[in-house]
Amino acid sequence: MSSAVEKSYESSDKLIAYTTKISTTSFAPIQQTLQDRTLAEMGKLGGCIGAPEVLEMGKAMIHLTRASKVIDIGTFTGASALAWAVALPEGGKVISMDVTHEYLNKVGLSIIENVPELRAKIDFRLGAAVDTLQSLIDTGESGTFSFAFIDADKANYSRYYELCLQLLAPGGALWRGSVVEPTERGAIAIDAANRKAAADSSVFNTLLNVGDGVHLIVKKH
Length: 221
Prior knowledge:
Layout: H1 14-23, H2 29-41, H3 52-65, E1 69-73, H4 79-87, E2 93-98, H5 102-113, H6 116-119, E3 122-126, H7 129-138, E4 145-150, H8 157-167, E5 168-177, H9 185-198, E6 203-208, E7 214-219
Helix pairs in contact: 2-5, 3-4, 7-8, 8-9
């Protein structure tokens, strides 16, 4: 029996296939190319790429919040950063952060660089995301981002949550991968971050059964 919470490209469930097809009509050809190459070339690691239905819902949130500045935590092969660049208006900026660019350089960067107007919107930063986020705060960028996406090392999710809330403007959306029934350390850390958001009176939060689970958090005014 398949899980009720899983990424569409990992699922054989007919309902998930139907809802994904309906939900990803605006999935750009360049996004499909990057996803296909990631799954083909990265082996088991390929499953770390964000589900298309999650990326498309994130793109909708960028339009809804009229975002021009986006935080992207967890670059991997660049799929999420690319999605946000597709959604952003001209002049928009994605700051995408990771501790390694090995997978970006191997798979995604050459694809993204084929479309200069999208590449110009993405600032790939190498290093610990906690340090990058703190540097943004230290340089006066608190309250200037409208959308943040977290899909990286699970142990730091609670810290990412705290720092991203400082950087988000009121009404900004925080988009995070989530889990149910946690047993291993990473899942336990995500569960703790989910519960932190649920208990935080400064946000609206909704845990969604989309892809392998998404927690949508909106900073109150």
